Each structure stands twice: as C-alpha cells, then as structure tokens.
Amino acid sequence: MAIQGRWKHLVGTIMLAGIVLAGVLVCGRSGVQRPGGNPMNDSRILVEHVRQTSNKPFEDVTTAFERQLGRFDQDVYKALAAGGDAEGAKAKIEAMAGTSGFMLFATHNHGALLRLAGQKRKAVQYVVGNPLFAFQMTQHDIRASLYAPLRVLISENEEGKTCVEYDKPSSLFGQFGNNRISSTAAMLDRKLDALVAAAFE
C-alpha cells in the first residue's frame, strides 16, 4: 500500500509538472459552466519535454541552428487569402524551407527581457515550422494549429553549457487521437531531433 501511495503521488506530480515518462494521457471534463453561461471543456495532457545540453558555446549552437532554417514570408498567406494560385503558393512555401525542412517564423530574446530583473542570461526562443507540414494535420483537425509552428528554446545554464529544449510534437498532437495527424507528428519528432543534433555537432 505504501508503494501504491507513493506511485499515485508521483503520477500527480508528473501531471502537475507537465512532464511525461511515456505516452500521452488525455483527461478532462465536458460542459463545465463558466461566467456568462458558456460551456467549456477542460482537458489535461501529458507532454514529453526534451532537454539536451552541450559544451558547445551558445553562439555557435544558435548559428548552426539558424543555418538550417529557411525564412517564412507572410505574403504567401495574403496571396492565398485573396484567392491566389494555390499551386503557386505551395511552390513558394516549399522554396522557403531550409535544409532541415523547417523555416523560421520568429525569434524572442528572453535573455534580453530578463535584464528587466537585473539578470544576465542568454536565451532565445525560436518559432519554427513549415506550413505544409501544418496543413497535413490541420486539414484533419483545425485544433492542431494550436501547436504549429513549434517552439524551441536555446539557452545558457548556470554552468555555461548550452541547452536546447522543446516539447515533442508527437505528444502535443497525439491528444487529438487521429492517426493521420500522429504520423505527421512522428515525422516532426525526427526532423526536430536531427535539427538539434546538427546544431550540436
């Protein structure tokens, strides 16, 4: 009984921390009433978080990471929204991808932001993805767009090592229970792993 009690406590801790040991767990409540009378469905999922460290300097890792990314141009969305040529837009998107298959949508320098608290730390969040990969999932369930594009954090820890972190796509998209989405998410797992591995080389 003591072991069972500790296991239940561990599972609760894992759920609260948002860390997964294996697989994806989805649970929730339907029809919860909120102020205003609008029903809301609450769900909780377990997410597999990946964190890798290296002795390679922060600047070298970020440079190698960015070198593998193409650059996304928002104008392609404007053309599609205006009824432009779909095949032409697809070709333009394909040409934007870098060697990793991903392109850069935005960066957020959280290290610079920490200077507001008097902290000096190197940390950049990258928003990366590929609209064509996203489309492979959102055509089956638009909720997949909540997690596309993806986010990757590269930071320097207290020991001066460089850390790369991200939530594994298969665990994010797995909550939708759709095999057609899951197969694309598994492909994104492999591509992200390869992108980070190449940045650490």
What's the quick description here?
It is built from eight helices and eight strands; from the N terminus they run αβββαβααβαβαββαα. It has 201 residues and is of the alpha+beta class. The chain has a six-stranded mixed β-sheet with strand order 3-8-7-6-5-4. Strands 1-2 form a two-stranded antiparallel sheet.
Overview of the structural elements:
The chain has 201 residues and is of the alpha+beta class. It is built from 8 helices and 8 strands. It has helices at 2-17, 58-67, 75-81, 86-96, 110-113, 131-138, 169-173, 179-200; strands spanning 26-33, 39-45, 49-54, 70-71, 103-109, 123-129, 150-156, 162-167. The protein is globular and about 45 Å long. Mean pLDDT is 86; it is low at 1-24.
Write the layout of secondary structure elements.
Elements: H1 2-17, E1 26-33, E2 39-45, E3 49-54, H2 58-67, E4 70-71, H3 75-81, H4 86-96, E5 103-109, H5 110-113, E6 123-129, H6 131-138, E7 150-156, E8 162-167, H7 169-173, H8 179-200
Parallel strand pairs: 4-5
Antiparallel strand pairs: 1-2, 3-8, 5-6, 6-7, 7-8
Helix pairs in contact: 2-8, 3-4, 6-8
Q: What is the CA-CA span between the terminal residues?
A: 48 Å
Order of the strands making up the biggest sheet: 3-8-7-6-5-4
Oligomerization state: single chain
As a whole number of angstroms, the C-alpha radius of gyration is: 20 Å
Structural class: alpha+beta
**Percentage of residues in strands:** 15-25%
Helix content: 40-55%
Mean pLDDT: 86
The general outline is: globular
Can you tag this structure with a few keywords?
201 residues, alpha+beta, two-stranded antiparallel sheet, 8 strands, globular
